[in-house]
Write a structure and sequence with these properties.
- By secondary structure, the protein is of the alpha+beta class.
- 32% of the residues lie in helices and 26% in strands.
- α9 crosses α10 (307-314).
- The longest helix has 23 residues, at 262-284.
- The relative contact order is 0.08.
């Protein structure tokens, strides 16, 4: 699938048979039902071993492939697949690939035990980095099953193919990637799509940001879990930062095929939601965000949510501030630029003026350093910044003559795009 704005349909049950020449491997969105009719015994034995192994097993090696010792003999073979409740169905066939497989262990809900998910990778031997792909699948399937809800299907397959980046289908993704870090994040993103939209069936043509944004968020969750950090500098996706500074960002509200370019579509659908979710977690807590995403997913599995459903459930912890937060951070094109715009001594008081420029606000701290080295911290609520007049929010600091410096967001927690104006006096 190569268009902008992807397929949108209801789940269905599939019973598929595909006939191909011998020595061609076929994999699909559903489990193979007649392995004994298409695969040689040695290959089936390796596949059975893989189903019990957390470490990837080479089911088909390059030497087996070149020796044409993978499938049974004959002019053509028919491969049969059946699957239930699938949003779509994909097939992949090639005689040029090797096959690695292993097992992911998924805990079922409500203490109902554990299930094994077959994770498998099909790729051309020259793409050596793909030797890690089956293990990357295991890591992501197990992680997202813990953080969201259990992966529902018996297998998850990644195939090395002809798309730019990745393209997801139920229980199958096609991907290309460079180094190991890029391959890991690409596969993590595509596996997150197994929850959004393969289970939570949002309309990708009209609201691409719902599933692409969540998948982009969870690829970062996976990268932080695996390496301790993601690739966003100061919590800000670099592509989005560049677009904001160029003034060319477009709202997430557009349909996928109504953006000026693939660049503005990508920023809106993939990166703006990441910025919004990160801002929400900073304001209301990581656990509030995780709880909201799970509640949204559980409520809308097998259904078709709209943006108000996402806003109402994912951003629930914002309470009375929810609509204002969504307008600023999710639906708009604003950004955070906290600034100290004035500091004037009036008697014994330092009258400080603060602004939240850029059109989006978050709660922060104004750190006041005294001449004797003592430090005071004054909390500044996002709601106060939003309600302030155009001239700014006034904060009065007593003991003006003993104030050495002022600093907003002293721990640099927030995604502030212009930090030079966070300090007084200016350096």
């Amino acid at each position: 699938y190569l268009a902008t704005g992807e397929f949108y349909m209801d789940p269905a049950d599939y019973d598929v048979a595909v006939t191909v020449p011998a020595n061609v491997l076929v994999v699909a969105s559903a489990p193979l039902r007649n392995a004994v009719e298409v695969l040689r015994p040695a290959v089936r034995e390796r596949l059975e071993k893989a189903m019990r192994s957390l470490a990837p097993v080479p089911v088909v090696t390059d030497s087996l492939r070149r020796a044409r010792a993978v499938t049974l003999a004959g002019d053509a073979l028919t491969w049969r697949f059946t699957g239930e409740g699938l949003r779509d169905f994909a097939l992949y066939a090639s005689d040029a690939v090797v096959w690695d497989a292993g097992a992911a262990i998924v805990s079922r809900a409500h203490g109902a035990g554990k299930d094994t998910v077959l994770v498998q990778a099909f790729y051309r031997p020259a793409f050596r980095e793909w030797r890690k792909a089956a293990d990357y699948l295991r890591v992501a399937v197990e992680l997202f099953s813990r953080q969201l809800w259990p992966y529902p299907w018996k297998q998850m397959t990644a195939v090395e193919g002809i798309v730019e980046g990745g393209m997801e289908y139920p229980a199958l993704t096609v991907a290309t990637a460079g180094d190991g870090r890029e391959l890991f994040t690409t596969l993590a993103h595509e596996i997150a799509h197994m929850w959004f939209p393969m289970q939570v069936g949002s309309d990708e043509r009209r609201f691409a940001w719902i599933d692409e944004g969540l998948a982009s968020w969870f690829e970062r969750v996976a990268l932080r879990a695996e390496t301790g950090r993601d690739d966003d500098v100061d919590g800000v996706p670099e592509f989005w930062r560049t677009m904001v500074r160029s003034g060319g960002e477009e709202s997430v509200r557009h349909a996928a095929d109504r953006y000026r370019s693939i660049v503005t579509y990508t920023v809106a659908a993939y990166e703006r939601p990441v910025v919004a979710l990160r801002a929400f977690a900073l304001e209301y807590g990581d656990s509030a965000l995780a709880t909201g995403i799970r509640a949204f997913g559980e409520a809308w599995k097998g259904k078709h949510p709209y943006p108000p459903d996402f806003e109402r459930m994912v951003l629930a912890a914002a309470g009375a501030e929810r609509e204002a937060f969504a307008a600023e951070w999710l639906y708009g094109t604003g950004w955070l630029d906290l600034a100290i715009t004035g500091a004037e001594v009036v008697g014994d008081t330092l009258v400080v003026t603060l602004q939240s420029r850029g059109g989006a606000s978050l709660s922060t701290v104004l750190a006041v350093t005294r001449t004797d080295g003592n430090l005071a911290r004054i909390p500044i609520a996002a709601s106060a910044l939003r309600a302030a007049p155009a001239t700014g929010l006034v904060v009065r600091v007593p003991g003006a003559n003993t104030v050495r410096s002022l600093q907003l967001d002293p721990e640099r927690r927030l995604p502030d795009l212009e930090r030079a104006n966070d300090r007084w006096p200016r350096r």
